[in-house]
Amino acid sequence: MDAMTNTDVAYFDIRDPAFRFDSPEVRAAADAGWWARTPIGLAVLRYQECLALLGDRRLRHATLDRLTAFGVTSGIFADWLRASLFNLEGEPHQRQRRLMNTALTRRSVEALRPFMRAKTHELIDGFIGDGSCEFVAAFADPYPAWVLAEVLGIPAEHFDVFLGGATDMGLGFGPEAAAEQDRIDAAVAGLYACCDGLIAKRRNNLTDDFISMLISAESDGHSLTTEELRALVSLLVFAGQDATRIQLALAMLTFTQHPAQWRLLAERPELAGTAVEELMRVNSAAPVLGRMATEDFTFQGLDIPAGTYIMFFLAAANTEPETFGDAPFDITERRKAQLTFGGGSHYCPGAWLARIEMGEALPILASRLGDISLTDPVSSLPMTGPATLSLQFTRTTSRA
Questions:
Q1: Under 8 Å CB-to-CB from 336, ≥6 apart: which residues?
Q2: What is the domain range of residue 33?
Q3: Residue 391, H or E segment
Q4: Structural domain contains residue 8
Q5: How far apart are CA 117 and CA 104, in angstroms?
């Protein structure tokens, strides 16, 4: 069956600026079947099919293909994507993943919890006396950037370059990539210059930070080249800031719609872990993921030719009633694993870092800010989240 010409199956124009992955139309299509058509390929709508295909080795990562679809085929950002862990497959991908996992361990991330708590309080102290804030600028932007600065051992004088570079690079994953290419390429160039300086400095003076661990890491007698080190460090700087920034803003937006759950998190901070999973399930920073078929194959009776672009509509899969029930947003509920971090060989390598970052920050925010509400309408775009999030809150006293 030709997926792209079957007019009996739903069609979604994902290039339309008004399209939303969590729309009622997508939910209706998911209730009717597991796949749909788009202008650039196949859409997978249901949880079990997403879970199976995300781990299917007949598919490869398709971030670079999406950039090409947006009209960008050359430039430093495109070259960065080609060399990054996003785009590698097979042995090169496995080798770099092993070396990265050697440096970014669960134990090393756990050791950052005191820093995360202290930085959360410090940032809140900067705005709590006002009774309101623009949350993205006041917290969601700087918090993950400061955590990564701690992980990487970034000097304070380089902080603004790392923060601004990650924000501008995020534009490369949306339909505005071609229009903003000069800005995006400049951000990559600036980030590369900082990474090269840090790597050179660490080679001469190894410490206990992530870059030093990457330099020292070996797998089967192989270590990372300077180019591979630059690609991995810059990837962590980008992905570790951008996704967590978006998810924190979406978390606060979600809690404004569920005030009882916000108060519950303040009263019971031990719920932070399930709260993070529930927030990522119902309002994900990654509502869609992309893969590319590397060979012809048939899945559940559907023929999928090599070269087919496959989009996983995670916003639909993560809220599927058949899998997650009809229960409302509930931070006390333990559910099946949400799919925001992907699956298979390209499962997000920074998943533990993102989970712990949010798990430390959100209960403190809930405890210190009191009741929260929006003061201005919010426009959230897929893959970029809210540009601004204006909040007011009921507590304005500093820490004892």
A1: 47, 323, 324
A2: 24-393
A3: strand 390-393
A4: no
A5: 20
The Cβ of residue 338 has, within 10 Å, a number of other Cβ atoms equal to 20
* Cβ atoms of residues 58 and 288 within 8 Å: no
Tell me, yes or no, whether 3 lies in a domain. no
One-letter identity of residue 291: R
Return the bridge partners of 310, or none: 42, 291
Instruction: Please compute the mean of the pLDDT values over residues 160-183 and round it to a whole number.
Output: 78
Whether the CB-CB separation of 347 and 236 falls below 8 Å is answered with no
Query: Domains in the chain: how many in total?
Result: 1
Asked if residue 6 is part of any domain, the answer here is: no
Q: What is the CATH number of the domain that holds 66?
A: 1.10.630.10
Mean pLDDT of 90-99: 81
Bridge partners of residue 2, in order along the sequence? 303
Buried b (16+ CB within 10 A) or exposed e, 106-117: eebbeebeeebe
Q: What are the tens digits of pLDDT across the range 128-162?
A: 999 999 999 999 999 998 998 888 887 777 777 66
Q: What is the mean pLDDT of residues 72-90?
A: 85
3-state secondary structure of 175: coil
Sign of CA dihedral 246, 247, 248, 251: positive
Q: Residues 303-343: pLDDT tens digits?
A: 999 999 999 999 999 999 999 987 789 999 989 999 998 88
DSSP 289-334: EEEEESS-EEETTEEE-TT-EEEEEHHHHTT-HHHH-S----TT--
- According to the model, what pLDDT value does residue 349 have? 78
DSSP letters for 191-227: HHHHHHHHHHHHHHS--SSHHHHHHH--BTTB---HH
Cβ pair 139, 388 in contact under 8 A? no
Domain-embedded: residue 13: no
Mean confidence (pLDDT) of the chain: 87
**Count of CA atoms in the C-beta half-sphere (13 A) of 67:** 25
**309 residue type, one letter:** Y
Convert the pLDDT of each residue in 189-246 to its tens digit. Answer: 888 888 888 888 888 888 877 888 888 875 556 677 888 888 888 888 777 788 898 9
